[in-house]
Design a protein that fits this description.
The protein is built from five helices and no strands.
């Protein structure tokens, strides 16, 4: 329906994996906004889309944040004043996203439980729009400043170690972000 399957060949290096995550963040934020705006969709598609967004934002996104906080930030800190400023901004944005994600998950849960209720979609709309805007700003910063430094300075061994850390997080249980409606 909203999120196409398949796509470009996957990159297996650390930056490539983070960029794939960024694409998914953009896609699911856009899907959340589409859920709020599209009143022409069958109820079953709305419910399924809400479930997919809730699962992504409560399970996958927290692991991506951990990838950046635990594998990117410590290894880039001290590289340069510009990189340190970008890392500080990245960390602050991660903290500011938490309450937005809780609200977004709550609103998605409301739409999932009442997919024909216009009020539920009206509550979701500004949150989804804000998430799309805030995430895009956040992702552009990382892509413009941090990822080029990793690509230019990390050895293949550093990148491989970061990929191993990323994969280990995918296999570990993650508490994630939870809304009141998902508990």
């Amino acid at each position: 329906m909203f999120v196409p399957l398949g796509g470009a060949p996957k990159r297996e290096d650390f930056v490539g994996l983070l960029l794939e995550c960024h694409e998914r963040i953009r896609r699911f934020a856009g899907l959340s906004r589409a859920i709020a705006q599209r009143t022409d969709l069958p109820v079953s598609e709305v419910v399924e889309a809400c479930e997919r967004c809730e699962r992504y934002f409560s399970e996958a996104l927290p692991r991506h944040v951990a990838d950046e906080e635990e594998s990117l930030l410590p290894h880039l800190r001290g590289h340069s004043p510009e990189v340190d400023a970008a890392l500080a901004t990245m960390h602050t944005q991660h903290e500011h996203h938490r309450p937005l994600l809780v609200e977004l998950l709550t609103a998605l849960g409301e739409v999932r439980h009442s997919p024909t209720d216009p009020a539920a979609r009206e509550r979701l709309a500004p949150l989804a729009t804000r998430a799309l805007r805030d995430f895009d700003e956040h992702l552009r910063l990382e892509e413009a400043i941090l990822f080029p430094v990793v690509t230019a300075t990390w050895t293949p061994q550093q990148s491989a170690r970061a990929v191993e850390e990323l994969r280990a997080r995918r296999h570990a249980a993650s508490p994630g972000f939870h809304s009141a409606s998902s508990r």
